[in-house]
Design goal:
346 residues; mainly alpha; binds zinc ion; 5 strands; five-stranded mixed β-sheet; Collagenase (Catalytic Domain)
C-alpha cells in the first residue's frame, strides 16, 4: 500500500475536475436559456417556437448529464474522504519512493496538492498548526452556524491556499477559465492574521456559503430588509456616539480602532457613509454596488460566530436588528430546516 497517498491525491484531482465540469454545465444551461429569451424580444413566430423545442431538449439533456455528474461527484468525494482518512491513520511514514510515485501520478498542472480542511476541499498547503487553529475555532463556534458550515463544507472549495500574500484574498463567484469558483487566500498569512487567526478562512468561505445556499444564482443575504436593518443599526450607533461626552467618544474610537474590531469598523463605516470608522473599511465605491453591504455583513457575522466570542459580542450588541435577521437566515439553511423548505417547493 505504498501509494495510498498518491491515490488520494489523484482522487482529489478528479474531484476538483468534476466540480469544474459541473459548474461549467450549469453556466452553459443558464446561458442557453438566457440567449433564447433574449432572441424572443425581437423574434416571435413559428421558427422561434421550433427553436424553443430544441432549446428545451438541449436543456433536458444538460439536466440529465448534470444529475449523473452530481451523483458521481458524491461517490468520488466520499471515496476520496475515506482514502484520505485511511492515509491519515496509516502509520507508515511517507517514503521517498512514495513521493516519487506521487510525482509521476499527479498531473503537474499548477499547484496540485489537495487536502481537506474541516471537510473543505483545498488546493495548496497550509502551515504547521493551521488546521489546529481553525479546528479550535470550529469547536468554539455557535452551534447553529457550525451546523450550517458542516452542512455546506462538502460543496465549498478553496482554489488556492497559497495565493500571493500581497494580493487581496477573495471568493470568486464566477467560473472563469483559469479562475474557477472558490476561495483564494494565503493560509500562512491567515495563521498570523492580526484580526485573529483563521479570520480570512471563515470570512471568505462564508461568502461562498451565502452564494451556494441559493444554488449560485444569488446571495441568501441579498434582501432589502437586511440592508435596511444594517443602516438603521449603524445610524443608531452614530447618534449614540454623537451624544457621548468627548472622553467617551475617544474611548469608543480607541476600541473600534483595534484590529479585532475590523468587522465592526467595516460595517459602521459602510452604514454611516464613512462618518464613523476604525482602521478597516472597504472603499466608498464598493458599498455603492447593490448587495455588497449585505454580503459583507453576512460574512462578518458568520466569521465572528465561528469561534471569536469578542467579535461576536461587539457585532451582535451594536447591530442587534441586523444580527437577528442574520440568525433567521442561518436557521433557514440549517440542515433540518433546509430539507423542509426544499420539500415544500415541490
Ligand atoms: Zn468580504
Amino acid at each position: 500500500m505504498s501509494n495510498v497517498n498518491a491515490d488520494a491525491t489523484q482522487l482529489l484531482t478528479i474531484l476538483k475536475n468534476m466540480r469544474t465540469s459541473i459548474s461549467s454545465i450549469e453556466t452553459t444551461r443558464s446561458s442557453v436559456k438566457m440567449k433564447y429569451q433574449q432572441l424572443g424580444i425581437g423574434w416571435n413566430d413559428k421558427k422561434y417556437d421550433e427553436l424553443g423545442t430544441i432549446v428545451k431538449d438541449c436543456n433536458k439533456a444538460l439536466n440529465d448529464i448534470l444529475q449523473i455528474m452530481l451523483q458521481a461527484e458524491k461517490y468520488v468525494a466520499s471515496l476520496a474522504k475515506s482514502v484520505q482518512e485511511y492515509d491519515n491513520v496509516n502509520l507508515d511514514t511517507p517514503s521517498a519512493r512514495n513521493s516519487f510515485l506521487q510525482g509521476l501520478q499527479t498531473p503537474n498542472v499548477g499547484n496540485s496538492s489537495y487536502q481537506y480542511c474541516l471537510g473543505v476541499l483545498t488546493q495548496g498547503s497550509t502551515p504547521d498548526g493551521y488546521i489546529a487553529v481553525i479546528s479550535q475555532r470550529h469547536e468554539n463556534a455557535e452551534q447553529n452556524v457550525r451546523e450550517v458550515f458542516d452542512h455546506f463544507a462538502g460543496k465549498l472549495m478553496i482554489q488556492d491556499s497559497e495565493y500571493p500574500p500581497d494580493q487581496t484574498a477573495h471568493y470568486s463567484p464566477g467560473n472563469y477559465i483559469g479562475h474557477s469558483r472558490g476561495v483564494y487566500y494565503n493560509a500562512a498569512s491567515d495563521m498570523t492574521n492580526p484580526r485573529g487567526a483563521g479570520t480570512t478562512y471563515f470570512h471568505e468561505l462564508a461568502h461562498m456559503i451565502d452564494h451556494a445556499s441559493c444554488n449560485y444564482r444569488s446571495n441568501l443575504s441579498n434582501t432589502p430588509e437586511f440592508a435596511e436593518a444594517l443602516v438603521e443599526d449603524g445610524q443608531r450607533i452614530l447618534s449614540l456616539y454623537n451624544n457621548l461626552p468627548v472622553e467617551k467618544q475617544t474611548a469608543f474610537l480607541t476600541r473600534i480602532r483595534q484590529d479585532s474590531a475590523h468587522s465592526f469598523s467595516d460595517l459602521i463605516d459602510a452604514t454611516t457613509n464613512g462618518q464613523l470608522h476604525g482602521n478597516y473599511g472597504h472603499s466608498r465605491n464598493y458599498w455603492t454596488r447593490p448587495g455588497n453591504l449585505q454580503a459583507e455583513a453576512f460574512a462578518h457575522f458568520f466569521e465572528a460566530s465561528m469561534g471569536d466570542q469578542g467579535k461576536l459580542e461587539l457585532l451582535a450588541n451594536f447591530f442587534p436588528t441586523a444580527f437577528g435577521i442574520f440568525s433567521s437566515m442561518i436557521d433557514s439553511i440549517r440542515p433540518d430546516n433546509h430539507v423542509r423548505v426544499l420539500s415544500r417547493e415541490r
